[in-house]
Amino acid sequence: MSARDQHLLAIRPIISSIRISDNMSKDERFQNITLRPIIKLQNDLFIEVFRNYIKKHKNVFYELTLERRQHYIDNAIHKDIKFRNSLKGMVIGQFTTNEYSIYIENSSALNKRMMNIVIQRLQSNIQLFETPEMLKAV
Length: 138
Hints:
Number of strands: 0
Number of domains: 1
Radius of gyration: 16 Å
Number of helices: 8
Largest sheet: none
Structural class: mainly alpha
Helix content: over 70%
Distance between the termini: 51 Å
Low-confidence stretches: none
Mean pLDDT: 94
Order of helices and strands: HHHHHHHH
Strand content: under 5%
């Protein structure tokens, strides 16, 4: 294992709630061992990237109801291919060389899992996307 791979693995958070079993599919195992820790590690970056996305799209997000904001996040990642590819790159760039080899075997299904986790993470942090003015009003 290269020094790069060792460093990448060393900085990943440990998610104690993850359980690995023998009857898991290869994709589910990859999701739990690789994707979830990387996405958790990159969480602050994803939040800043989405704040920038909101700004670039004329702050329309701030005019929406909570339910519509949830949909906006989902839609942004599913429909905006450039944005989705940027998010994927932030995850894939954290793969070890071995993980990348596993990823390319079934990248389509793993991309779907990856983006669903990112969507869930952004939606669960939706309160972080309030404007400073809105937070003062509360």
